[in-house]
Amino acid sequence: MTFKTRVLQLSLAVVLATAASLGAERADAHGIVVTANLVAVETGTSTGSAEMEISDETGKICLDLTLVNVDEPQLVVITKGPGVDAETVVVELQMPSGNDPDCTFADVTAVEGILADVASHYLTVTTQAEPTGAIQGRLEKPLPPSFPPQAESASPSLSENENSWLVVPSVVLVTLATISAVGWTALRRHSTNGTTTPEGR
Fold it and tell me: For a Cys staple, 158 with which of 58, 115, 163, 165, CB 3.0–4.6 Å?
């Protein structure tokens, strides 16, 4: 195996490793989205909505919650079935503060159970007056977005999320260029230590 071949193999290995690492980081960046439309457990005008981003690898659950006509919440829980008691509560969530969602790190096994059977689980908000649940909704996975008709999708501009896929190839190209420069320098030095140089041919 020549010195040039070894340099090229090293360059390729580093580029592939860089691409794999960046791809793995991007895959872990977002979890699985689960939503719930909340209605009053008993009769009333209370309504709300919830959106959660759930990671089945880390157990992290980030909750974005909107409540209308609901007294001060006491607990926000995910239950197996509609009831709220010691046997049905799977995860107790952090109540979001302000406009930002709050995140809870739950048991990974519990999270896997939720994602394996989303429709059997409920999000319930309790209050002091209604400790067994003031407002509640069944969890569901939102449907994937449908593509617009061909006539309406002439030349859509790329948003920040849509063009984020360019990050990996861009970094790979920069890495490849850097390694190529280092490899060329090494080849020149190697040739200089031999009998001829590229300029001397």
Answer: 163
